[in-house]
Specification:
Elements: H1 2-25, E1 29-31, E2 34-36, H2 41-50, H3 52-70, H4 77-107, H5 117-123, H6 127-157, H7 162-171, H8 173-193
Antiparallel strand pairs: 1-2
């Protein structure tokens, strides 16, 4: 009964985050040569809070239901896979960054050990904030920076070559710089707000990181 209750809460939270991602698609900002939006953020939150399985499901639901609701364009599986990776990669990357960041903060950035004024400000930054930034930024670089140009080449150019990929990669660089700075800044407060969720629901232990 307890396991069913936990799974039900996870499914409800996954559905809410997928719905949030769909809604955020309509609040993106269109600028010359780029479009700025934060719709992938709820997917990454789902991955960090619920684990890679529910993170991937959240991305799948967000992309497929979002396409059905929008009623325009065409359904393209490679882009759907990228949306799923937004939820799968963060919990897998989390242990890779959490351990070294924890070591650095414990050994080198503790307030009582920091002597250089230039490093003292680091002592006031939560280690989990740094971990969140590294995880989210790396996820965005892989999905939006590396994989999305390839998917767009297949969708729009009907072929994938090094030249086409490089052209789309370079064209998207300003957008990616904004995302690399903005996505972690948006993701972290949401994770902090969800830190009161029960431990059994949270497979990823970002909030144990002090």
């Amino acid at each position: 009964m307890r396991k069913f209750s936990v799974n039900l809460r996870a499914m409800v939270l996954s559905g809410l985050l997928a719905a949030m991602g769909i809604v955020l698609q309509y609040f993106s900002i269109t600028m010359p040569l780029m479009r700025i939006g934060i719709s992938p953020v709820p997917i990454m939150v789902a991955g960090l809070v619920l684990g890679p399985v529910y993170g991937g499901i959240t991305g799948l639901v967000k992309d497929t239901v979002g396409f059905l609701v929008a009623g325009q364009g065409s359904f393209f599986p490679p882009i759907t896979v990228i949306q799923m990776l937004y939820g799968i990669l963060p919990p897998l990357l989390l242990p890779l960054f959490r351990t070294p960041v924890h070591w650095v903060w414990d050994k080198a950035v503790r307030p009582d050990k920091v002597q250089r004024p230039a490093l003292r400000w680091l002592a006031g930054v939560p280690a989990r904030l740094v971990t969140c930034y590294l995880v989210v930024a790396t996820t965005q670089f892989i999905t939006g920076g590396l994989l999305m140009p390839a998917a767009l080449c297949l969708l729009l150019d009907r072929q994938l070559t090094a030249q086409l990929w490089l052209a789309r990669f370079v064209a998207r660089l300003p957008q990616q710089v904004i995302y690399l700075a903005g996505y972690p800044a948006v993701t972290y407060p949401i994770l902090e707000a969800l830190s009161g969720a029960t431990r059994s629901v949270r497979e990823a232990a970002l909030f144990r990181h002090t």
